[in-house]
Amino acid sequence: MASERLSQVSGHLTNSYPRGLLAGEVAIITGAAQGIGRSCALLFAKEGAKVVVSDLDEKKAQIVVDEILAAEGDAIAVGGDVGADDFPERVLSATIKKYGKLNHIVNNAGFTFDKMLHTTPDDAFDIILKIHVRAPFRLIRAAAPYLRIKGNKENRSIINVSSTSGLHGNIGQANYAAAKSAVIGLTKTICKEWGIFNVRANTVAFGYIQTRLTQAKEAGASIEIDGKKVALGIPGGKSQATGGGGPAPGIPLGRGGTPDEAAASVLFLASPLASFVSGHTLEVTGGQGI
Fold first, then answer.
1. Which of 31, 176, 207, 247 could disulfide-link to 285, CB 3.0 to 4.6 Å?
2. Which candidate, 202, 267, 204, places its Cα nearest to that of 44?
3. CATH for 24-209+259-283, among 3.80.10.10, 1.10.510.10, 3.40.109.10, 3.40.50.720?
4. pLDDT for 148-194, tens place per residue?
């Protein structure tokens, strides 16, 4: 019986959206060269979206674009630091020049700069708020002319990436937790201000997803910010990973999530399946923190 119902639902979706859930829509995804952002870009393209793959590393962004083009999708790469003053204008100009419109913004770019609160210097606090709060705010504000259009009934949305750290706090992440909490308030405000223009705004709060931010810090992954090398990952992170490291304590499903699973939740929020979902924070945690 259950399999029959699932088959009926799948058939309905196929019939309703034969060219994909996001067919003909245009999406900007930041931090899209790897991890969750890359999975989002590939999945959005598979569902028919024209994707603007943005990343600090333009060469890696172009690799993702090449993957999309090879699969007969449509995408362009736009490199740049989301925190730069000229970034919003650059990425929006490229988007409108190529595709003529904008449907979705996924503010995914970010990194962690972990330190205990009493040892966190001002610059480590400021840069995290700049990238995770100020940058999304500035991009959304600059996109207003392309989204605040009365009478436009197209599917349009803004999705800001948060974290369980923003919901519950986390040891060693006073800066990150503050930023990820702030972006939830930003999202709710957009929901209330732009709903009249048929623009939905939602947040997705990820728990333990297997990316370079959650791998073992000992693996040596890093990012360069303002000429400074910032180590990524968490001490002993590898032992908490799934697929190669046994169970994940505290997660009812017993494992961490994959970037593809994370991307699926973002797709849901962007898609017509969430047409009456706005101002919501979707927790994608495997049950952790309930």
1. 207
2. 267
3. 3.40.50.720
4. 999 999 999 999 999 999 999 999 999 999 999 999 999 999 999 99
